[in-house]
Amino acid sequence: MAFQVKPLAVVIALSWVLSMQQHSSSVNGKPQVPCFFIFGDSLADSGNNNLLDSLAKVNYTPYGIDFPGGATGRFTNGRTTIDVLSQLLGFDNYIPPFSLLNSSDILKGLNYASGAAGIRKESGRQLGARISMDRQLKNHKITISRIADILGKKRAKKHVHKSLHSGVKKWLAKKYLSKCLYSVGMGSNDYINNYFLPQYHDTSKKFTTEQYAEALIKQYSQQIKKLHKYGARKVVLVGVGLIGCTPTAISAGTNGSACVDRMNLAALQFNQRLVSLVDQLNSNLTNAMFIYINSFEMGSGDPAAAGFKVSNVGCCEVNEVGQCKFDQNPCKNRSEYVFWDGFHPTEALNQINAIRSYSSAINPADTYPMDISHLAKLKFNHRVAAY
Ligand SMILES: *[C@@H]1O[C@H](CO)[C@@H](O)[C@H](O)[C@H]1NC(C)=O
Ligand SMILES: *[C@@H]1O[C@H](CO)[C@@H](O)[C@H](O)[C@H]1NC(C)=O
Ligand SMILES: *[C@@H]1O[C@H](CO)[C@@H](O)[C@H](O)[C@H]1NC(C)=O
Ligand SMILES: *[C@@H]1O[C@H](CO)[C@@H](O)[C@H](O)[C@H]1NC(C)=O
Is residue 221, in this structure, part of any structural domain at all? Predict the structure, then answer.
């Protein structure tokens, strides 16, 4: 509902957040957290699917038309919400994708997100290869042992030791990882590329939407607890947005509504349980903080109030899987469009969503129980006994 705020107020609030941010990062020159790890789907993917045998990959024009690096595999015209968040957090560079990485920059974080991926292993299967949440966690485990080696070498050099016991290296890594920020955004493909595709998946025959939300959250809970076990202490959980209002959903028929109501209702049922999971994790796991990003709230309200002119069709002509057709000219005025292709928002919307996730000053309902700027500032003691 925050879009109902007067546009001028939104613009002033956004530019205030941005100018404050630029000020603070130029003063100390260091990001607000030393590292940022990203788990998710196409909304966050920055190239992990490029090397996969999959229809869900977009390393071709016109994707990236407004991005300095061109078509990197990001599912939008410019920056993703994660890219803008990295800037707000004061990082000089975007967080690189896990699959394309070969440098020691992994200490600043990695992006594991994969288009078409879900909480459930089979979600997105009909599009080809993708990296499910369980596999993203396995990739993170690989990163952790690399970080342990890097930190171990640094420590050994400093103290002129030949090598360190593996337990000490693990402890160094866990201590470091507890300072990082983690963003996890999953669930959309468990609906769009699973439950609501009965021609490829049988989940809608096995579960009601309530039962399905329950089953998804149960599995997600295990995955998030594993991430915590791997040392994550500051975790952002991004809720599912208005999946019934994407151009692809709308073009399939809305039965008289503005959007496909049953898809949005299913997303709400999932989000409701995700909020309750956040409460449980915060009370059960001390010395850690989990926050919820209310993407659904951010997508509600009148897009015109934020300066958008088109919200029911995307900016480019799409193919049979809702992605921009290869090498076609997209619309010229991309900042007037909410959607870039059949599913994914434009950079213009990503920028607003990132700012609202970073600071809840515009609308307190955007984040729970705190926003990312406050989460980043928290400090947790790493228990020495952990190894
Ligand atoms: C690996 O690192 C080198 C040097 O930084 C870079 O030129 C190259 O593009 C990187 N390769 C990949 C696959 O990222
Ligand atoms: C369409 O809307 C009518 C009236 O609200 C409802 O009875 C019907 O079940 C809807 N059909 C579908 C396919 O959602
Ligand atoms: C939190 O603890 C309660 C009480 O022990 C338990 O019932 C619940 O399942 C736990 N929740 C999570 C997410 O671990
Ligand atoms: C693009 O949108 C901006 C902001 O709404 C507007 O000022 C500008 O005139 C538009 N340009 C074109 C070519 O439509």
Answer: yes
Please indicate whether residue 374 is annotated as part of the active site: no
Please report the atom of ligand 4 found closest to the CA of residue 309. Answer: 5
Strand 367-368: give its sheet, edge to edge. 36-40, 181-185, 234-238, 289-293, 367-368
Q: Coil, strand or helix: which one is 337? A: strand
Mean pLDDT of 198-209: 98
Q: Which is it for the CA torsion 124, 125, 127, 132, positive or negative?
A: positive
**What phi and psi values does residue 378 have, to the nearest 5 degrees?**
-65, 150
C-alpha–C-alpha distance, residues 44 and 35, integer Å: 16
Contacts of 313 (CB under 8 A, 6+ apart): 247, 339
**387 part of a folded domain:** no
Catalytic residue, candidates 341, 359, 371, 373: 341
Domain, as residue range, for 123:
7-375
Tally of helices (H runs) and strands (E runs) in the chain: 12, 5
pLDDT digits (tens, 9 = 90+) for 124-160: 999 999 999 999 999 999 999 999 999 999 888 887 7
Residue 105, pLDDT score: 83
How far apart CA 197 and CA 63 sit, in angstroms, is 25
Using the predicted structure, report yes or no on whether residue 3 has a pLDDT greater than 90. no
DSSP bridge pairs for 293: 238, 367
Instruction: Please report the pLDDT score of residue 165 as a whole number.
Output: 85
pTM greater than 0.85: yes
Cα separation of 89 and 22, whole Å? 10
Helices 7-28 and 347-358: angle between axes, nearest 10 degrees: 70
Q: What CATH number does residue 26 fall under? A: 3.40.50.1110
Of 103, 105, 111, which is best to mutate to test ligand 1, by the most ligand atoms within 8 angstroms of its C-beta? 103
How far apart are the CA of 309 and the centre of ligand 1, in A? 40
**pLDDT over threshold 70, residue 82:** yes
Q: Which residues contact 102 (CB under 8 A, 6 or more apart)?
A: none
Q: At CA 320, angle to CA 316 and CA 321, rounded to 5?
A: 85
* 156 vs 95 pLDDT, higher one: 95
Number of domains in the chain: 1
Helix-helix angle 133-158:166-177, to 10 degrees: 110
